[in-house]
Amino acid sequence: MVFVTGDTHLSYFKEDAGKLFKRRKGFPIPALRRTDYLIVLGDFSLFWSKKSIFNKENIRKIQELPYTLLFLDGNHENFDWLEEFPVAERFGGKVQICGENIVHLMRGEIYQIQEKTFFVCGGAMSHDIEFRQPHITWWPQEQISAEEERHACSNLDQAGTVDFILTHTCPDTIVQEMFGKVPSRNATERFLGKVAARLPDVPWYFGHHHEDTDLGRYHAIYNRVLRIV
User: Fold this and answer.
1) Mean pLDDT computed over 37-56
2) Neighbours of 92 (CB within 10 A)
3) Mapped to the 3 state alphabet, what secondary structure does 92-149 carry?
4) Where are the domains of the chain?
5) pTM greater than the 0.90 cutoff
């Protein structure tokens, strides 16, 4: 089984990871195993401060969970810390192994999980940068780079199509259509607009906007947990 859920902001909200997922709407009752996956669609924020006892305790608790926790990077992550984790091959693509059952799904990769293919692209723009400190509460790596875009396009060229799209934010046009917000037209959302044009019918799940709502193939996920496989 594969499930998706939205932003957890574990460090921001001082959430207890051992209890958080159990409280989320739609979390499965059946017993899960390591071969079952819960995917956090960015702003996981588990890896925020190396010095924080709170962070260390949450890492320990997640590694005690029976299933495997996969996550996309959002915009509120400590990217300097994430970059220290080793890159490995898993699910047919590159990942970072961050714990016994904690795996970072990297931008532009295409994975095969339980016989389904997933195009993944984390990242988004923070709208409160002026109130944050570089490399302490904000990281310039939060948005997709030109190199990451090229890598993603190359993977999509080879794959042709996929079964699911998982991202942190969504295409700029969908921001306005779903949430009534003026699109910021930042690099990540512009790139996702190109992905949308290439893959017009693929189911799309994303977080970032702190809402649970659906529009056609687009599904904004926040507090709910959806089984997709």
Assistant:
1) 91
2) 14
3) CEEEEEEECCEEEECCCCEEEECCEEEEEECCCCCCCHHHCCECCCECHHHCCCHHHH
4) 2-227
5) yes
